[in-house]
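One example given next:
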Amino acid sequence: MNNLCPLAKGNYGYTMRTTSYLLSTLKETPAEAVLASHRLMLRAGLIRQIGQGLYTWLPLGLRVL
């Protein structure tokens, strides 16, 4: 098997490890997030703040759109 990504042998064959996903999640809610949807999108790793009041969609967020 061609090993392009870190794989682990599980009960159902080879599975991708969670640590190799291209997303970062937050455990705590940022203080500047007021709306519930804003808090959830930041914590889930769908958007990231790039400046004062400026946000960008991360790859997983674009896929959800």
In short: The first strand starts at residue 7 and ends at 10. The chain has a mean pLDDT of 77. Residues 22-64 form one domain. The radius of gyration is 16 Å.
